[in-house]
Each structure stands twice: as C-alpha cells, then as structure tokens.
Amino acid sequence: MLCRPVQRIYYNSGNGYTVADYQTQEELPKQVVTKQKGYYGLFRAVGVELPNDEGLEVELTGEWKERKYGWQYEVSCFHVHIPTTEEGIKAYLSSTLIKGIGPVTAEHIVEKFGKKTLYVLENQPEELLKIRGITESKLEEILKGYQRSTGMRDLMVHLAPFGITPRKIALIQEHFGSAAVSIVRENPFRLCEVKGFGFLTVDPIAVKAKNFKADDPLRIKAAIEHVMAEAEGEGHLFLNKQEILNRAGQLLNHRKAPGTVSDRAIKDAGNEMIHKDRKLVCYDGAFYTTRAFKAELGAAAMLVKLSLQQNMSVNIDRILRSVQQREKLILNAKQQEAIQMVFRHPVSIITGGPGRGKTTIIRFIIAIQEELNKEAMILLCAPTGRARQRMYETTGYPALTIHKAVGLTGETGEEEWNHLATMPEDLIIVDETSMVDMFLADKLFSCVKTGARLVMVGDKDQIESVGPGNVFKEMIDSGVIPVTILDECFRQEGDSTIISNADKINRNQLNLTFDDTFRFYPAADAKDAAAKIREIYEKELKENKGGTDDVQVLSPLRKDTEAGSDALNAMLREIVNPKRRGYPEAANGKVTFRQNDKVMQTKNNDEVSNGDVGSVLNIYQEEGTTKMRVDFGNGRIMKYEGEDYWPLTHAYAMSVHKSQGSEYPVVILPMLPCFRRMLRRNIFYTAVTRAKKKVLIVGSKRAIAQAIRTDFTARRNTRFAQQIRRIMQEVQKQGEKTA
After folding, report:
1. Distance between CA atoms of residues 462 and 219, nearest Å
2. What are phi and psi of 482, to 5 degrees?
3. What is the 3-state secondary structure (H, E, C) of 52-72?
4. Which residues 6+ apart lie within 8 Å of 141 measured at CB?
5. ∠ CA 571-577-580 to the nearest 5 degrees?
6. 335 in helix, strand or coil?
7. What is the rounded distance in angstroms from the CA atom of residue 408 to the CA atom of residue 417?
C-alpha cells in the first residue's frame, strides 16, 4: 500500500516497535473507513522502525488486524520510494533515514541542484562543497549517511520478508558495508558472521531465499563454522571429530530443518573445508579454525624464538642493592629472585595473588632498566583499559593497552591489524597476563623485536581469558619459560581478611573468616538479594561520600536473573541518577542514558578501550540527531550519535569478567544457587580480589561453598604448552645436529 506518514503515535526504543498514522489514496477496507471520523485515507499502522518523516512516500506490506483499539495495519516490511519532486527530495534528505543533513542543509542543497540533487549525490558528490557550511568532513558524513540509507533500503527489500527488523538490517549493513546486499544474496549463510545471527536464525532465511536442500555443502559448512565459533566462545581452540559431528548434527537436524543430514555428509563438507577452502586445520586428531591454529602455533614459535635469544643475561646485584637503598625498601628473597630472573632471561613470568608485591617488582624492574641504559625504551601494557590505567596509577609510568601497543583496533574478535613492524621497546612488561587470549598473545609476541626483554605478570588463579585459550597458565605449565611464584603477603591493611580468605578459596577451604572487612548478608533468592544489595549500596555510597567509583557491584552473571549485572544496573542507576524532568535522555537499542550516568565502553577503538569507564557529560540534539558526549578521563571525550550502535552499557554493576584488571575500595557481590554454572572457584576468587578494603557478599553460604569446591580452570581445549615444548625440543635437537 502506497502512503505518506502523518504522525508517530508510539515508539519503543528498545525493540523499535512503532505505532503511526498514515494517509493513502488507495481504497481502504470498509471496516477501516467507517472508523476514520471523516478523514479520507487515514489509517493506523503498527510494525518495527516504521518511517515517520513527513513528505516521504512509503510502501507498506502487511495485513489488517482488529485489535483492542480498532483496525490496524500490521506491517511485515516497508519500502521508502525515492522522491522525484524538489519538495520530496528535501523531505528525503532531511529525514531520519539520512544522517548528517538537517532541514536547513537540505534546503540549501535542493536550492542549488533541484531535481538533479540525488544524481549529484550519486555521481558528483564533491559539488556539494560549493554549498556554504558543507566542509570536507561534513560531506564525508553526508555521503556516509546517504550510502547507508540506500544500502539499508536495498537490504530491507531483500530481507524484510523474512522477518528481519530494520535494527538488525543496520547491523548487517555495518558488518558487510556497501557489498552487503550482493553478499547476502549470494550466500545467506554469511549472515552467521553478524553478531546476533546464529545458525538457527539464518537457516530458515537461507532455505526460503535460495531453496537450500538439507545436505547442501554451503549449509553444512555454515553449521560447522557456527560450531567452531561457538567452541571458541567457550574458550576452546579446537574440537575433536566426534564433538563436531555431534554439535553440527544437532544444528543441521533441528526440528524445523528441511531434511536429515548424515555424519558422512558432515565429514565430506569438513574435509572440503580443510583441503579446499582452507578454513579448518586437522592437527593430530584436533580440528582448529585456520585462524586459531595459526595463532597457537605462531605464538608458541615466537615465544620459543624470544626465549632462546643469546647474551641477554645481565648482572644487576649492585644496581638492585642501590635501588633498594634509594627506595628505602628491602625486598624479600622471592621478590629479588623474580627481578634477577627478569635480567637473566629474555622472557620470564612473575605470578602471585593480591598483596604479594607484584607492583613493587614492576617499579624496581623499571628503575633497574633505566640504570642499565637511560636510553632504553620501556613499554608497560595490559589487556584492558582499566588494567592499563591501574598500571599507570600504581607505577607512575605511562602504560598502553596491548591492543593499542600492537596496532589492533575494533571489537574483540573483529580487530583490524594495522601494525606493520615490530615494537621499538627494549623492555616490555605485560600486567594481568591471565586475561590475554590466544589471538592477542599471537599478535603481541609477533611484535616483540629481537633483543627485547619480555616480562609477563599476573595471577594464575584468576578467571581465564574471555577469548579462547588459557595462555598464562599454559606458559607456566610448559616448563620452558622461567617462572617466579610470589607467595608472601605484604599488604598491611590486610593482614587483611580479604587476602587470607582469597588464599583459603584457592586452597579449597570453606572456613572463610567473616568480619567488618569481609561480611555476609543472607538472601532467600535473587529478588531478596537485589533488595538487600540496594540497601547496602545506598549505605556504602553515603559512607564513601557518594563516590560510585569507590563502591562497585559485581555479579557472576549478566542476564536472566534479578541479581545479574543488567538488572542491578537498572536498579542502582535509579538510586544514583534518577530521571529528572527537563533533562534529555538518549535511547540506544534497549539502553537509555542520562546525563551523569556511569557507563562502560564495550568495544576497542583508537581512543578508548573495552572496559574503560566514564561519565555522560551531556545529551543534545543537532540537525535532528540525538548526540551524547562521554568523558573517559585523561582528556578522552567520545561522541556517540544518531541511530548507530553505541558500544556502551551502564557500569554501576558489572560482571566479574568485566571487572578483571580493576580494583575498588568496596565490592558488593551476590552469590546465589541460581548462578549454577558460574559458581566456580576462579570466578569467586577473582571477584573477592577486586576489593581493597571491603567485600560484602549477599546470598547463600551454600552457593559460596559450591563455588569454592568447583574448579573448572583446566577444561579448555588448547595445546599451547605442548606446542611450546615441542618447538623448543625441535630447535634444541637441530642445534645439537649443527654443533
């Protein structure tokens, strides 16, 4: 039905659900006309992200349904017609469909180019620079908005019949860029590459769009790729043959599948992925994605190469004594051993729990390196923005994220590799190494120059990396890299119950000590725990003078429970930053932001890193687009705008995984039986060791006991340690032959 928007009645920013009035010249059903109160051609439509800009011509496809409020047109898909009149072109340019052009700019453009405006945009966009107020950067923004609009329109026509919402179509467009339509038409299973599109979502679309048979090789390969990606998401670098057959078989033969796929067909497709497509590698009975295999093998080979560097041992006895005298601090035997190890070997590892003096050792290593060579370049780095910031605060020495240091930009798993040469630094110290996954380790080791010294510091008992592999533990277990384990506690404000309880947790001991610094509050269930967390949070905020950076709520789970970080965030935000009349809000996806909100970045970019926490400075309208500025400290102010996906979430509460690399004076932690699979020793230990002064646990002592008893740290499919040992042995044998 061809129509024009009249007004938007309702819009849900979370899911895009829209109620809007439209007017059409076409004949409407009798039952609809009788209820229009004399307005010819007026009707009400409901759907997802329906366009509501006046002056546009829209074609809606759907069916009439009688609802509580009368007859409504339920829209299954829509198409915006490209206007041909000057007024229509103005309306199109200034609509929400195209970012970067407001009503005034649209007026100037159409005044200059008239009906040729869209031709100019397509073929001679540089002509727009002749219009006052359009700079090169502004033109780039306009063209990006126009191209996105046309691409979105084409994708909408192709995918809307399959129930894909405009918001998801925007994600597809962002992922594939200008080639999105041709890519999706050629192989719909490539939609599995887009976040939020699993195989079971894409399968019926592909079957309808191209009539795929059940055992079509493209379909089977898509299922295998999904299985491998899912395994990497679980921390595995490889799967064995039977695991792939079982998982892929379940996917391919799901309830609504077009037929049955045999193990033989899966094996044939898998073999083709190995020998022809080169997407899989079979190594000694283990099946890797090519990327995962290259990362594991490459990291192992580079680590061995760095470890075998000659003439790297330096006698630092005199300098170490001098630095201790200058710092008026005598290190214990283990600390001195760790520092000596660093300067005797090109690669070394230092591990220990909280309060074991790791930060002190890093400061001493820097001081000794500067005494040895004042011209030497030193790099401190950590896996996340928060860990990097803490490294800088505790050492007083500049630090980078590993991503920044090696030239990785973009979201985890989808980074762009911009580094073309090795890093120039002579000494590289990596903190929180337990958070480094296999892919990041491979990039890091490959960038270390010959002659550089690499020191990896971390706590081997913390949670494994979010990405695949178990890099830090595997390096320690390999027996190839020199390791110093710090086991003496120095933190005085400790004699701390927090540290002694952390040690008990690691030793599988249930007799935790509860006192003023380590408290327990019983809760019957998640709802009760959330209510008690609210009370405790308000009380602690008052004691800490309202500082949300000083009181952090952590949860083992993010979703599906009232005691998860998502639900707790919504509750705590209303305490700290309630809605105020007259103050603007910005909705993006399912999240609504307010001025002064505490937020966390969830994606790496050039300025801020995944895990960085900031505060919303202001929210404002510019040329019809909602924009928001966030201050992440150190002069880093980021702008978020329009309909783009914002990689932000609230940070009053966060998952334990997101808290890695950070420390807070006070940690509030729910521990409940409903957390089940997340009740693990290393998760509990990691949460407890984030606190410097106080841990407040809300929940069940039974859940605490289950977490302490459950040790899953070694259940990842990885052969990194084995590869390090194998390569080292091969190199040594080769050396013996040539000696």
Report:
1. 39
2. -60, 130
3. CCCCCEEEEEEEEEEECCEEE
4. 99, 100
5. 115
6. helix
7. 5
- Distance CA(6)–CA(262), nearest Å, equals 54
Query: pLDDT value at position 517?
Result: 92
User: How far is the CA of 556 from the CAs of 534, 637, 675, 703, 705, in angstroms?
Assistant: 17, 30, 7, 12, 15
Amino acid at 611: G
Which pair of structure tokens corresponds to residue 165? 């919402």
What's the CA gap between 216 and 57, in Å, rounded? 41
Confidence band for 494, pLDDT divided at 50, 70 and 90:
very low
- Please, where are the H alpha helices in 523-628? 526-543, 565-576
Q: How far apart are CA 158 and CA 531, in angstroms?
A: 47
Residue 377 vs residues 234, 385, 680: alpha-carbon distances, Å: 37, 21, 40
- State the average pLDDT for the chain: 86
Tokens encoding 131: 């219009």
Please list, in sequence order, all residues whose beta carbon lies within 8 angstroms of the beta carbon of residue 579, skipping any fewer than 6 positions away. Answer: 585, 594
Residue-wise pLDDT for 305-321, tens only, equals 999 999 999 999 999 99
Helix (H) / strand (E) containing 244: helix 241-252
**What's the mean pLDDT in 268-291?**
95
**DSSP characters for 211-236?**
---TT-HHHHHHHHHHHHHHHHHTT-
Element (H, E) at 598: strand 598-601
Helices (H), 28-186: 30-33, 86-93, 103-113, 117-123, 136-159, 166-176, 180-186
Amino acid at site 114: G
Within 13 Å, how many C-alpha atoms sit on residue 420's CB side?
A: 0
Q: How confident is the model over 179-234, as pLDDT tens digits?
A: 788 888 888 888 888 877 888 888 888 888 777 888 999 999 999 999 999 999 88
Beta bridge partners of 315: none
Q: Are strands 483-486 and 347-352 parallel, antiparallel or unpaired?
A: parallel
Residue spans of alpha helices (H) in 608-719 = 656-659, 681-688, 701-709
Rounded to an integer, what distance in angstroms lies between the CA atom of residue 568 and that of residue 404? Answer: 32
d(CA 407, CA 412): 13
> pTM, whole model, 2 decimals?
0.78
